[in-house]
Design brief:
- With 253 residues, this protein is an alpha/beta fold.
- The protein has two domains: 176 residues, P-loop containing nucleotide triphosphate hydrolases (Rossmann fold), CATH 3.40.50.300; 68 residues.
- Helix content is 36%, strand content 24%.
- The strands form two sheets. A six-stranded mixed beta sheet has the order 6-7-8-3-9-10, sandwiched between helices.
- β7, α6 and β8 form a beta-alpha-beta unit.
- α3 crosses α4, α3 runs parallel beside α5 and α4 packs across α5.
- The radius of gyration is 18 Å and the shape is globular.
- The protein starts with a strand and ends in a 16-residue tail after the last helix.
- Bound molecules: adenosine-5'-diphosphate and magnesium ion.
């Protein structure tokens, strides 16, 4: 197992944001985390990537207990992520922003190598024309793609994507999913994508999904089985999901 999340809980004051959640991710797996706004998805990512320490429970990465490691010590082990709200260095170029990922992630590249890695992933996400622009001048969609390139440049073994496809049109989503399948195959990266509403995207992408609801794990299993489970439909989706069907998002909250 690449990642084992064991019974983790995170409280903010009186609020239990994540409540005794356990799940596992295999090497190279495509895993989806779905759940409405506020269900604890980002908090879960923050505990895996080291932004927060859980109040209880353990996180095991590649056989090692990383529960108490700070974020900067986890990235070199191979945990990469994107942020729901990208925070690039706005005056640095796209190339430089992505190169930072290569220097401080698992790649641990020197500057020259980092620039090469940066160019590779910038091209992969389709941002070559923007490579020498200041990151601050990018559109929100381009910033999201740059975030993805930066996370890939870390050479992660586990890539955590926070709403990376939100607001994209079906064609862009299709491209992103194709790109993610490519890096999974070629680099054996396990990719975890979390979404609030993009159920059709998750049916195309994920082999397994976990549904979060009010900080708890409601259900986990093969994607179509889980998304058509009565409990999931009742508390979250409101209707059945057809495989790969466009526009089959859950109702908005
Ligand atoms: N830093 C924080 N301080 C206080 N409450 C937080 C913090 N981060 C998240 N929360 C709360 O925890 C709950 C889960 O949030 P979050 O993990 O962001 O959910 P999701 O990503 O599924 O929308 C929400 O009620 C949110 O308001
Ligand atoms: Mg979130």
């Amino acid at each position: 197992m690449l990642l084992k999340v064991e019974d983790v809980t995170k409280r903010f004051g009186g609020l239990v944001a994540v409540d005794s959640v356990s799940f596992e991710i295999k090497e190279g797996e495509a895993f989806g985390i779905v759940g409405p706004n506020g269900s604890g998805k980002t908090t879960l990512y923050n505990m895996i990537s080291g932004v927060y320490q859980p109040d209880s429970g353990r996180i095991i990465f590649d056989g090692r207990d990383i529960t108490d490691l700070p974020a900067h010590a986890r990235a070199p082990l191979g945990i990469g992520r994107t942020f729901q709200i990208p925070r690039p260095f706005p005056s640095a170029t796209v190339r430089e922003n992505v190169a930072v990922g290569a220097m401080f992630g698992r790649a641990q590249a020197d500057v020259k190598e980092a620039m090469e890695i940066s160019d590779y992933y910038i091209e992969l996400v389709g941002l070559s024309e923007q490579a020498n622009k200041a990151a601050g001048t990018l559109t929100p969609l381009e910033k999201r793609l740059m975030e993805l390139a930066r996370a890939l440049a870390m050479k992660p073994r586990l890539l955590l994507l926070d709403e990376v496809m939100a607001g994209m049109n079906p064609k862009d989503i299709g491209n992103i999913i194709e790109l993610l399948q490519k890096v999974r195959q070629e680099e054996k990266i396990a990719v975890v994508a979390m979404v609030e509403h993009l159920m059709h995207a998750i049916t195309k992408f994920a082999e397994r999904v976990m549904v979060m609801h009010q900080g708890r794990k409601l259900l986990e299993g093969p994607t179509m089985e889980v998304l058509n489970d009565e409990r999931v439909i009742e508390v979250y989706l409101g209707k059945k999901i057809r495989e790969g069907a466009e526009g089959a998002e859950g109702h908005r909250t």
